[in-house]
Amino acid sequence: MKGFQFTHFHPDDQQKTTFEKLLDLFMQLLNYTNGDAGEALNWLTQLDKKYQLTNEDYGMGDFIDDLKQKGYIDEQQQNGEFRITPKTEQSIRKRSLDEIFGKLRKSRSGDHQTFKPGAGGDINPETRPFQFGDQLEQIDFVSSIRNAQIHHGIDSFRMHEDDLEIRETDYKTQTSTVLMIDISHSMILYGEDRITPAKKVAMALSELITTKYPKDTLDIVVFGNDAWPVEIKDIPYLQVGPYHTNTVAGLELAMDILRRRKNPNKQIFMITDGKPTCLKIGGKYYKNSFGLDRKITNRCLNLAAQCKKLKLPITTFMIASDPYLQRFVSEFTETNQGKAFFASLDKLGAFIFRDFESGKNKVLR
């Protein structure tokens, strides 16, 4: 006898088809399989056997056929392997945004704009008298002509400087952000998966910026023994490697990227769980995984000071609770005069979202 299975009631689930429910699970599993569609389908099949996700009318074979027909996966003719498509990559980013930031986006706090008047943005309904230095395109000609008629009459129409009125626009900040992600081996040590939440945050932040703030820029930098940039489309495939943590290389690459950006407002977000343990000197790697090596940490602190001079604030999201590591992060943050959040994995997205949005109002130097 099969019996009854009780689950939490979700009103939205009652309106979803079997395909849509399976698709939600499939997208979640892709985050844990580093974008491996075949492995995700294998896991989903095992879950189906245990929890009876499908039925006699709709089985896993039907689901796989629908995935191919709807453009979520492609089957390789040479070896029969399944690979996700760009449509799936974008869908994962959107779902990450909805999952992490969905509730927060309903709030109007931090609407990515300031009350400082300037070029670009929404037109302000208020006007003011013309001042020397105002741009021609800022002149409100309707109000200015009306003033000229009132001041000089219609018969001898003429317009003076005192007749001109300016309509301002609300200035909206544009920011260049580099998100640094630690992919050293410690991100999966001690049975805790830290890389998956970090990837979800990166995908959600990239989707937020590309859809809501298209004039902003976001660069993703991963760092282990070395540091290198990755494209937004590559984020689902990120994997932890047998690396040490070369924080210096990540910061140097982030600084180099931001040096080439033209936006006046720039910032670095760094997600890490461990201490810096690696340094590249010439062509050799200097490594020390035992405690905090001052030779390595001093280089980190020097870069933090350089970023301060360049007005590059660094916000560190620390997902480790070791007191001596937190003390180092506090020293690093004080040197840069940036910010640090000691965030649990489930709160990581909320911390980054709030800081990103609120920072848009504060970066007005």
Beta fraction = 15-25%
The end-to-end span amounts to: 70 Å
The run of helices and strands is: HHHEEHEHEEHEEHEEEHEHEH
Quick one: overall form?
flat
Q: In what order do the strands lie side by side in the largest sheet?
A: 7-6-5-8-11-12
Number of domains: 3
Write the CATH homologous superfamily of the largest domain.
von Willebrand factor, type A domain
- Outline the biggest β-sheet: 6 strands, mixed
CATH topology of the largest domain: Rossmann fold
- What's the overall average pLDDT, rounded? 84
Radius of gyration: 26 Å
Structural class: alpha/beta
Helix content: 40-55%
Tell how many strands the DSSP assignment holds. 12
Helix segment count?
10
Which CATH class of the largest domain is shown? Alpha Beta
Residue stretches low in confidence (pLDDT < 50, at least 5 long) are: 105-122, 361-365
**CATH-defined architecture of the largest domain:** 3-Layer(aba) Sandwich
Secondary-structure blueprint of this entry?
Layout: H1 18-32, H2 37-51, H3 60-69, E1 73-75, E2 82-84, H4 86-105, E3 123-129, H5 141-152, E4 165-169, E5 175-182, H6 195-212, E6 217-223, E7 227-230, H7 247-259, E8 265-272, E9 278-281, E10 284-287, H8 294-309, E11 314-318, H9 323-336, E12 339-342, H10 348-362
Parallel strand pairs: 5-6, 5-8, 8-11, 11-12
Antiparallel strand pairs: 1-2, 3-4, 6-7, 9-10
Helix pairs in contact: 1-2, 1-4, 4-6, 6-10, 7-8, 8-9
